[in-house]
Amino acid sequence: MLRFHFIRFPSLFASKASAFPLSPISISISNTTSFTSQRVSYSTPSSSKLLFRQLFEKESSTYTYLLADASHPDKPALLIDPVDKTVDRDLSLIQQLGLKLVYAINTHVHADHVTGTGLIKSKVPDVKSVISKASGATADLYVEPSDKVHFGDLYLEVRATPGHTMGCVTYVTGDTPDQPQPRMAFTGDAILIRGCGRTDFQGGSSEQLYKSIHSQIFTLPKDTLIYPAHDYKGFTVSTVGEEMQYNPRLTKDEETFKNIMANLNLSYPKMIDIAVPANMVCGIQSNPKQAECL
């Protein structure tokens, strides 16, 4: 089993002091999740390790997630699904919080925006880009099912959730007592809040998506927090239990689900012809052969 461990790199912004306290974000969500909140609070002592931010890029309605082990001496951090247009914002926040960015992670090869991983690496060379091996994309590190991505004393478990694309994965916080509770699932475009990703391009399959979600996400504890890669209605977070009960597509049987997906009649993604080629080489949009991702 492949395991990623935090490696000590020189401090990203060693010369500048932190402008904000290194306390974990306080996001108040109970078992009956509030969709008006962008914040989640954890009551267990072990959760004091996690610093968490949910960030938004409005043009593509993409969420980027910043996670860090604030109790670790090096304060290692990772970004999930960074967007090229908001890289400066994200790196500025990391600097202000006194964190050391270690990984820039993608849940899949996106079709609606260009990933920020390549641009991040050009600004912070020690950062490693991460994507699933099944994606076929270029990155420093490739993950497969059951791998663990470690940052400090925290980790994310990798679960294969193909269907939207053939290389989609979901990253889930650990299930051991020293990890944040409730668990958090960063689902990419596999499951959205009261919806799911389309399945009509990039090797998508409605049958595969249905099976992925039901076997890899809906088997998590019902209070697991779901953080998708996108939202178009103003929602920020859900839970496994809520989606099992209220998701209008995924509460149906498999055949009904496949029929729904086959009749969405969605328009051709306006960014796909730019985003996919760039994202296959870590978001590098010029001189792809010189992409510094390997």
Descriptive tags:
about 290 residues, 6 helices, single chain, alpha/beta, disordered C terminus, 7-stranded mixed beta sheet, 15 strands, 6-stranded mixed beta sheet
Please describe the biggest sheet, giving its number of strands, its sense, and whether it closes into a barrel: 7 strands, mixed
Query: Care to count the β-strands?
Result: 15
Structural class: alpha/beta
Please, how many helices?
A: 6
Question: Regions with pLDDT < 50 over 5+ consecutive residues?
Answer: 5-46, 287-294
The percent of residues in helical segments reads: 10-25%
Q: State the shape.
A: globular
Q: What gap, in angstroms, lies between the N and C termini?
A: 21 Å
Task: Please characterize this protein's 3D structure.
By secondary structure, the protein is α/β, with parallel strands linked by helices. The protein is 18% helix and 23% strand. Strands 1-8-9-10-11-14-15 form a seven-stranded mixed beta sheet. The protein has a six-stranded mixed beta sheet with strand order 2-3-4-5-6-7, covered by helices on one side. A two-stranded antiparallel ribbon has the order 12-13. α1 (87-96) links the parallel β4 and β5 (100-105). α3 (206-217) crosses α5. It is globular and about 50 Å long. Mean pLDDT is 86; it is low at 5-46 and 287-294.
Topology, element by element:
Blueprint: E1 3-4, E2 50-57, E3 62-69, E4 76-80, H1 87-96, E5 100-105, H2 117-123, E6 128-132, E7 141-143, E8 148-151, E9 154-160, E10 169-173, E11 184-188, E12 191-192, E13 195-196, H3 206-217, E14 225-228, E15 238-239, H4 240-246, H5 254-262, H6 272-279
Parallel strand pairs: 1-8, 4-5, 5-6, 6-7, 11-14
Antiparallel strand pairs: 2-3, 3-4, 8-9, 9-10, 10-11, 12-13, 14-15
Helix pairs in contact: 3-5
